[in-house]
Structure prediction request, 249 residues.
Amino acid sequence: MPNNTFHLPLFDQQRSIPIVEPSRPSTATQLVTAAHAVVDVVVSETIERTRDAGQSITCGQGCSACCQQLVSVSRMEALALAELVARMPSERQAVIRARFAHSLKTLRAAGVVAPVAPGQRPHLSIEGSELTDEEWDAFVKRYFDLHLFCPFIEDNSCSIYPDRPMICREYMVTSPVCACAVLDREKIRTVDLPIGISQRFYEASGAFDPDSSAKTALVLALEWAETEPPSRIDGRTIFSFFQMLCLQG
Prediction:
């Protein structure tokens, strides 16, 4: 597959990022992997700037406090995660799928995930743009208080670290770990990124395919993949539009 290049305006400089262009037809994994390469450059540059400003990123190996939070992923990322699980050895797959099933059962029992008819996508019990920030924050705290670790966590570390979702790559803090451990939003100091690539990827997908204009919780990714209609969009079209967004800065 040929290389393409993203020209990304970042901290008043132009960054050229070589990307393997998705094939035709493409898979969700190819599209998401291409976006990961861009996210990683943005995050790396941001970490450097943060350290130059005399601040330390307190996230590190063995700290999984944020892995109990409600992690939102786009439809395309949900499909990529399902593809990742499907490629795992059968024994490992069974372990991961059992964790997903346990999380879904717990969330339904707690009323965090709404009941759905057979064949329908599972969804959170509150959704929609009409929610206030306070209502959403309260719901996120309700999810956090269930203490459900991400199904991919092993010994307080991410077992799919190279393939972790974009929002996980972008989330960094400079505040003490203890604030994350109890989700104390007043004390958590997140690191602002100059460009939110996860949001841009989501917008690029939805601009061309209405089925892509949705997000879900990471723990619902496998169930989403099972009820997923065939994609109506060529991967390279999404990829090209995403590149355009990067160029706009």
Summary: DSSP finds nine helices and six strands in the chain. The chain has one domain: 3-248.
